[in-house]
Amino acid sequence: MTQQDVIVCTDLARELAAAVGKLAPDRLFVLTDTTTHRLCLPLIGSYPCLGEAHHITIAPTDEAKNLHSLADVWTALGEGGATRHSALICLGGGMVTDLGGFAASTFKRGIAYINIPTTLLAMVDASVGGKTGINFRGLKNEIGVFNAAATVLLDTRFLATLDQHNLRSGFAEMLKHALISTDDHLAELLRVDLSHADLAAMQQLVAKSVAIKEHVVSVDPHEHGLRKALNLGHTAGHAFESLALEQGRTVLHGYAVAWGLVCELYLSATRCGFPTDRFRQVVSYVRDTYGTFAIECKDYDRLYQFMTHDKKNTAGCINFTLLGGVGDVRINQTATKDDICEMLDFFREG
Ligand code: GLY
Hints:
alpha/beta; six-stranded parallel β-sheet
């Protein structure tokens, strides 16, 4: 996978013009969903480099991250006269950058794309690192390819359009990045009160968080080893998300990841020696910031089943990424059903 330029913007108009100029596309397309079309496009719509751009808009939310929307984007590219030398700008949250990245990666065997993430989750995670794709047959991100955006442009001014829940959701991935990096970075995040988030200060924290992800992806772009560090919190987190979906409860991805971090830090503390004081601090921050996800003993079997179907598993074993300490990543850790029930007991009862 080619290296991508990730730019923390000071002047988005100039930086976008430079990114487009580098590609010199014969035609330029901008993909939004109806939400980012309304809230975010006005911020960049008048930039001269977008003067001739064709606009494509799809339905919002993860439910629209499907084959139908993908076909709509391919159709719009085809009808707009896109060639292999055209480029697509994806302006939106993770749904738009994942689906748009996949549409670009597959149209005429691949055209270049630029990501302008507009949610915190997309800024620190989805838009960086080249994972693209769609949901399929009820499974999240089931179909996709690794293919990096040419450039990712991060501008925290877009966060002003974000509600508290989505801000908190993105922050969970930042906590994960801190847990796999340094104690100092984790400590500074645990001091952040998201109810009074300062966007200028957030820019610095976003830059640090993205640098952690970029480093991991540059060492292991296709997730054979170190990139599995980024799965911390996600084995349990995805199971909570799937259970919520099945039970008709709405849960944002980052909330599920935060609850997954509690579970997987419990396993880290009990099996890998993760320090108890840090564990308690993170658990208390997560409980204060994200509340909890109500589960009952009768949900354990289903949660266990979801974990066994996780696409990160190999040969029937549930694979966790755990920590021996902050920054001390232990990949490919397996757990028995009893370990998982004990972990869920801790999550449920504290
Ligand atoms: N979201 C985890 C990764 O990009 O690998």
